[in-house]
Amino acid sequence: MHRPGSTALMKGVAHCLEITSQGPTSIEKASSESVKLDCQFSLAPEDSGPLDIEWSLLASDNQKEDKVVILYSGDRAYEDYYPAVKGRAHFNSADPKNGDASINLTGLKSSDTGTYQCKVKKAPGIRSRKMLLTVMVRPSKPRCSADGPTLEGTDVVLRCTSSEGTNPLQYTWEKTSDNKLLPASAVLDPVGGTMNVRNASTSSSGTYRCTAKNHVGMEECILQLGITPPPNTAGIIAGAIIAVLLALIIIAIILFCCCRARNRKKYEKEISYEIREDVPPPKSRVSTARSFTSVGSQRSSLGSMSPSNLHEYALKPQYDKIPSVEEYERPPSHAPLPPPVASKMAGPNLSRMGAIAVMIPAQNRDGSIV
Predict the structure, then answer these.
(1) What is the torsional sign of CA 160, 165, 169, 172?
(2) Across-strand partners of 167?
(3) Coiled coil located at which positions (predicted)?
(4) 35-37 sheet: strands from edge to edge
(5) What does the angle CA 294 – CA 298 – CA 304 come to, to the nearest 5 degrees?
């Protein structure tokens, strides 16, 4: 049974506070960008109470409390409720009561990701709207590299990795040189960012570009790949053997030269010792002084000699005679022979003739005996 007042009640409810925004309820933005969370509303004449607008970040866990981000109440905005967005959350309109409860978030961070709720209250009406914000991080500049030796006939793995970036990240490889076609044996992994070039050939050499991208941005890196022929193993072994042999020969030559120089030095040293043994040692000053003393004594004794004892003196070997420089330096083999001894008949004949043997010493001009 239809009641007369029920239509009026439904009609009044239909014209109360309403959220009029028709935009998307899910938004994806890149970090450091700004976003507008739209929340437009309209009031009915019956909504006569005070206007309250509240934006909150809903907790992902039901056991946790929601975080109030920004608040408008009593014709005043309160923007410093949530420390994580302090200074970055503002109402889009200077006077939200005119029907615009939208807010702007600046300098987005990945921690800003979450579900935001706009609640507008004006008694007796109350409405709310939820929006999912996903803050994505752009891929950082990837690093391109080649794993293992880049030799012909081997499997070469090219890697491309971004250290930052919100998943899902997609990696793509392309060749930018020559015919710009990837090798036919290349196997791509768009999630892992690898490209495996099986049985690589020299035609696989060239310039490659890897692009890392997600929904909010992309970055790329360049890799120069050079496939080289495998080394000549036999030639390397032969070269190593030759190098070892040359090193041994050089060491042997050095040892031989050292031994020969050592033996030569030892031989020269022995020869010098033999020469020194043949040379008579020089007389000391003491012996020379004694010789001069003996000569002086002989000179003094000559004055008292008679003709008879002069004969004996002449026949006595002169051991105290000082050798001259020429005699001292003359080798032993060239020593002068002693003067021939007078014949036995010389003495008697001279005596018979009345001669007297006298030895006259040599004298200087001053009369001293030499």
Answers:
(1) negative
(2) none
(3) none
(4) 35-37, 103-105, 89-91
(5) 155
pLDDT at 144 over 50: yes
CA distances (Å), origin 247, targets 186, 235, 240, 252, 368? 47, 18, 11, 9, 80
Cα–Cα nearest to 321, from 277, 264, 262, 361: 361
Asked whether 35 and 121 are in contact (CB, 8 A), the reply is: no
CA distances from 160 to 188, 190, 271 (A): 11, 10, 80
Terminal-to-terminal C-alpha distance of the chain? 182
The DSSP symbol for 74 reads S
Q: What phi, psi does 10 have (nearest 5°)?
A: -65, -35
pLDDT at 291: 43
The per-residue pLDDT for range 182-217, each reduced to its tens digit, is 999 999 999 999 999 999 999 999 999 999 999 889
CA 20 – CA 41 distance, rounded (Å):
5
* Angle at the Cα of 309 from the Cα atoms of 305 and 313, rounded to 5 degrees: 95
Amino acid at 112: D
Beta partners for residue 257, in sequence order: none
User: Which runs of E-coded beta strand occur in the chain?
Assistant: 18-19, 26-30, 35-37, 41-42, 51-57, 67-73, 77-78, 89-91, 103-105, 114-122, 125-136, 143-147, 156-161, 170-175, 186-189, 194-197, 206-214, 217-225
Its pTM stands at 0.52
Chain CA centroid to CA 228, Å: 27
Rounded Cα–Cα distance for residues 114 and 183 (Å):
44
Distance of CA 313 to the CA centre of its chain: 98
CA angle 364, 369, 370 (to 5 degrees): 75
Calpha distance 317→137 (Å, rounded): 126
Q: Is 38 exposed, middle or buried (0-12, 13-18, 19+ CB in 10 A)?
A: buried
pLDDT digits (tens, 9 = 90+) for 286-316: 444 444 444 444 444 444 444 444 444 444 4
